[in-house]
Design goal:
Layout (H helix, E strand, L loop, with lengths): L2 E3 L9 H5 L24 H10 L5 E3 L1
Antiparallel strand pairs: 1-2
Length: 62
Amino acid sequence: MKITIDTSSCSGHARCAAAAPRLFRLDDDGYALPVDQEIPGALEEAARDGERACPERAITVE
């Protein structure tokens, strides 16, 4: 599974990190950083929680 973040759409609400802090990291300004690793299946629900939490829909879980 892979998480893609459209960084140009991220507005820095940090809801992804609040929903799934083990998966989503933020820069110093609160914007989501790209996830450069394969996500294990055991964390799929957490990834989906972060995806749903994003008001801009800048996160895609595939």
